[in-house]
Design goal:
There is one protein chain. This protein is of the alpha/beta class and 399 residues long. It folds into 3 domains: 15-199, Ribonuclease H-like superfamily/Ribonuclease H (Nucleotidyltransferase, domain 5); 209-299, Orthogonal Bundle (DNA polymerase, domain 1), CATH 1.10.150; 313-398, DNA polymerase, domain 1, CATH 1.10.150.80. Helix content is 53%, strand content 9%. It is built from 19 helices and 6 strands. It has helices at residues 19-30, 73-84, 94-103, 114-120, 128-136, 156-167, 169-182, 186-199, 221-241, 245-248, 251-260, 265-269, 282-294, 313-319, 321-341, 345-348, 351-363, 370-379, 384-398, and strands at residues 15-16, 33-42, 52-60, 63-67, 88-91, 110-113. Strands 1-4-3-2-5-6 form a 6-stranded mixed sheet, sandwiched between helices. Helix 9 (221-241) packs antiparallel against helix 11 (251-260) and helix 9 (221-241) crosses helix 13. It is globular and about 65 Å long.
Length: 399
Amino acid sequence: MSEPVTRPPSGRPPLLNSPEDFTAAAERLAAGRGPVAIDTERASGFRYGDRAFLLQIRRRGCGTLLLDPEGHRADLTEAFAPVLDELSWVIHAAASDLPSLAMLGLHPAALFDTELAGRLAGFERVNLAAMHEEVLGISLAKGHGAEDWSTRPLPDSWLDYAALDVEWLLELAEAMAELLDAAGKLDIAHQEFEHLRLTHLEPPAPTQWRAAKGMATLKSSEQLAAGERLWRTRERLAQDSDTAVTRVLATKTMVDMAKRLPTTAAELKRVDGGERLRGKRPAFWLSEVAAARRSDRDTWPRPERSASQVPSPKSWQSLDPESWEVLTELRADLAELSEAVNIPAENILRPALLRAAVWHSLGDGSIHTAEQLRRFLAAEGAREWQIDATTPLIAARVF
């Protein structure tokens, strides 16, 4: 293995953080050629939301730009949107970066995701460093991905790390396109990339309280009322202090608190993570639970259960063991297809979508034919290649 690269070969680019810097840099970028490599560094483990605190952009004929948007986000958008929105982007793990870029009003005209390309090519490891090593023979230094990128000033070693994330990203994309083309998968990849691009055209919608992990385990209206109040209070405190919500109150603690409905400090200690609330105002959180329970019962949320909702795996097995057996067989079919085409099964069809297709075919009987199945998969976001690959497998088991 080669020695890890710790600094950009042409030196560390300056950090640009003023409207004047942005205007001049955007002109340089516009004068470059070809697609742009883009990456972001965020601080969602430390700050409220998932906004970008650093943008790294590289284009041939321009070099690498390091942009600090904080305090001048509108100015960055005004300078770069007219340039970037007309270009093809190369990103590694685009689903992580596109939301924060959309928040800045930046959108690609076309997209190439090198991580997703690695998955479709059948790579065992698809992190950026592993793919650089395997495809380009370049060893990247690791170590700063989980830092608090809202820190100012940013240390030089962090800036070096950030610049290296895009240093060879264009070359990696070109090499991956050749590999995918040779394997007959380039059209599949372009369908996946376009789906990703279209999915993130708008900034992410505000998170809703029922979407928090574990909220679905709350069964009674009283528990749901407590869960909603705790979630809304956590959001308010996190937003007011610009702190990550999990630093205000861990999600698993919030949900278990709503489930157990503690009334005393002793009961709160038995909540998952309750012992660690000592420095986070345990009495305050107890009062929030009490306030939820005192509120008007007519306003309490009701458990949601649609007649067409796919049951959980645990309840499905007892509810309809025959269709559950079909699902088990289809998972094996998909695993065989995955091995044959060297694409992970979850990339051929999302596990949740496979479950839904089986349930609506055999459980509630709303899908009766292969053509209806194709339309259902398309409506749920499956790409044409996925529909072509999986419809025959599913239809053979359910019809």
